[in-house]
Amino acid sequence: TRLSIHQDIPLSYCSLLKDNEVYNNPLIQERTSSFINNDFTSTELSKRGKNRWNGRSFIKWLEDSNLKYKRLSCETNQRQDLEANTLYSMQRMVWLKHLPKETSSSGRISSLLSEHYLPKVEINNNFWTEWETNSI
């Protein structure tokens, strides 16, 4: 039916949003495309004109992948820490708001706001799993 009205691509709300780049930030897309396309392998292979790997290029690719993984895991840890601290502070403000006025003036507020009532999310900073740390 699209061919009968000379429409090459389907017309939908999602395609309009994509064309207007409402949800697609070009800077983010460039950054993610650089993660997907390994710069080292594409430039090395185009320079050499070969499509086979040698030991050095494979080790370099592994090192690049490990560095990207570590950088992304650090960014994820920082984002999770920020989210955990934000959640804790929001819960603490809500708890303080709903406390009766007499308890806030009597000094019992520190005992009521312990970690038993307001647990804080602990973020594991070590992303390496058991199979990644064991040598084969």
TrEMBL record:
Assigned GO CC terms:
nucleoplasm
Supply the name of the protein: Uncharacterized protein
Q: Give the species this sequence originates from.
A: Rotaria magnacalcarata
Question: Lineage of the source organism?
Answer: Eukaryota, Metazoa, Spiralia, Gnathifera, Rotifera
